[in-house]
Hints:
This protein has 874 residues and is mainly beta. It is 6% helix and 54% strand. It has 2 domains: 26-102, Carboxypeptidase-like, regulatory domain (Immunoglobulin-like, Sandwich); 246-333 and 341-349 and 358-369 and 383-567 and 576-673 and 695-873, Maltoporin, Chain A.
Amino acid sequence: xxxxxxxxxxxxxxxxxxxxxxxxxxxxxxxxxxxxxxxxxxxxxxxxxxxxxxxxxxxxxxxxxxxxxxxxxxxxxxxxxxxxxxxxxxxxxxxxxxxxxxxxxxxxxxxxxxxxxxxxxxxxxxxxxxxxxxxxxxxxxxxxxxxxxxxxxxxxxxxxxxxxxxxxxxxxxxxxxxxxxxxxxxxxxxxxxxxxxxxxxxxxxxxxxxxxxxxxxxxxxxxxxxxxxxxxxxxxxxxxxxxxxxxxxxxxxxxxxxxxxxxxxxxxxxxxxxxxxxxxxxxxxxxxxxxxxxxxxxxxxxxxxxxxxxxxxxxxxxxxxxxxxxxxxxxxxxxxxxxxxxxxxxxxxxxxxxxxxxxxxxxxxxxxxxxxxxxxxxxxxxxxxxxxxxxxxxxxxxxxxxxxxxxxxxxxxxxxxxxxxxxxxxxxxxxxxxxxxxxxxxxxxxxxxxxxxxxxxxxxxxxxxxxxxxxxxxxxxxxxxxxxxxxxxxxxxxxxxxxxxxxxxxxxxxxxxxxxxxxxxxxxxxxxxxxxxxxxxxxxxxxxxxxxxxxxxxxxxxxxxxxxxxxxxxxxxxxxxxxxxxxxxxxxxxxxxxxxxxxxxxxxxxxxxxxxxxxxxxxxxxxxxxxxxxxxxxxxxxxxxxxxxxxxxxxxxxxxxxxxxxxxxxxxxxxxxxxxxxxxxxxxxxxxxxxxxxxxxxxxxxxxxxxxxxxxxxxxxxxxxxxxxxxxxxxxxxxxxxxxxxxxxxxxxxxxxxxxxxxxxxxxxxxxxxxxxxxxxxxxxxxxxxxxxxxxxxxxxxxxxxxxxxxxxxxxxxxxxxxxxxxxxxxxxxxxxxxxxxxxxxxxxxxxxxxxxxxxxxxxxxxxxxxxxxxxxx
Length: 874
């Protein structure tokens, strides 16, 4: 009987085992395509609530084996596409082909920028936007600033050319230029430690080209703890990797201005789990304004290669940039009307949308640098030279441990040259101003010896901004380890380290010029006094403020800790703390000028080595031969951020967050005492925000309300001091909709900002508009929707030129347009028009202008510039 029972048990076990094995043998397979029928590799396919899943191979094919019979929810996800979700029943092998829909604003997209752990937009308690390839193409940006204007909450003064733009975020001020509180990144690491180093702004070393796969931007939120010196936000340019084979090559030509540009990029798998991407651009041209010579010249090359392993990947990347672009500084404009209702117009012979103080007659600059006579080429413009090499890795170590890290070294140098209009007026007024400051003698003539008598009767006092960027090299690394404590709680511990060199020399000079366009303005010469077209090799009208040499090094070590907790199935908490430890050391030298020795003799610099100190040479400031002011400073601060996200359902969520962070000072934005310590070591920001993210029938809607307080100390801006406490509150609204052939993206940001201290308490911060908005409708047509027409409307309401709120800068809106026609498979022709209707938009005014004499010095957006691009995609 016992043997019989054992036999029956054995048979039953064999039967159950065989049944289990049989049940586990079902396979789910298929292909994944986009809406155009293209197969997509690298798509994640999972059975929700299980550990089973896979990714599509290089042919877009997937297989999930050994699936037990039953009901499942299958989810397919890929960056830049809506998640595909389908309820399935498995009782035998199942074939399921999947189509995923591209959507750069998808709430299902996984975000990697400025978060403790990567999550979908819907699950993240931060306000974040993404800009995809199609949106970049539609915006047709000529600079990073023009691209960032389409991001809600960010006001970008993108009128200066390709670099050196000013950015503010949600009312956090543009008090000293650049982006003190906004961190610009490439592939998750800062481009520069400081975003507002004078003439070394982060966007100077950034070029927008076809290497960019997408842009992620967060405002406020966890930016305080996830990067250094970016508490107001992070914008991260994420490169293509070549995981999906394909590439493009395109030739662009100016239709109404002179430019020629070649863009190329290609990426492909080259083995199992091994793939690469390479791309860049080359270009030459005058640029969208008339300068009289080719001011844009150079290019960029970027490459990366990735090796995937079973439990992670390793990627290395390289970048070389050597690109010269024209910098457009404030220039003469007509100013009429009243301070509260002014009108900015062209001047006789000078168009403020297409002209500039640049001229074929302004070529060399002259100065004394490091004790030696120096000449630089004004035509170099903004000429960054950067060679970068980096690596990143990410591995799942098992037992709920993960590690990832990245590091990059960049060797940065270059030149920064541009003519700046310091004063404009009648010839007699400008001549008297210059003579009084410099002691200029002799008759004032043109370079050919004829009397200086411009046809419009106007002259301008020009500063040659002449900056040598000897060394802005940096090294960044960020390594973090994550441990899942249980199914609901994860802890991340990381360390960010940075070294930033700042070795920059300012050696500026001054000249008089007529106010004339077409790049043909002539210089004024004081007979027997001017040299090389300049009346001074310094800045006498500004008290020779601007001969300087910075040679400093910042070292940063920032450990941080983050916690991610799923409180309930719908409620998620994340919090993080960052400990910033900074050391800065080096020297700062200033130009010195002394006219008389102890015996009353002239002291100067014998620039032409003729053994005689002329009147002109007696006013040349030189960098002192002593070591300069020693800098030795250490400081630290703590930043923290905490947020809650409640997922109402699969299509909507609400979140709230409070953060407090700070941004350190670049060496040239601070004052240092005799003890080597900075007057203000860092500026603090506290921020609170609440938001709604909602998926609609035909799109998405994101709404965020925010409040911020900035405690900013006094800082330097060239020859003046700025800085105030600020407070702001506002609302961001961002949406994206699709209605068949029609699509529309847009955003509007309302900001009520206020100066919260000092003599201007209660006023609005300078250049801060109440409303900033953009709207981008598109229409796709053709049998396969291969043709496209779109416009982008970019606008701002009025703002004030200065903190005293005296002069208004009028609001404006301008339109960019793009039309793209597919000629044949892979080959397309597109026409892009920036500022289609030649709108005048003023972004900056020096001082408050002079209504009485009808003149001001201002910076304006460039007028219409149209290009044609022939592109082949393969």
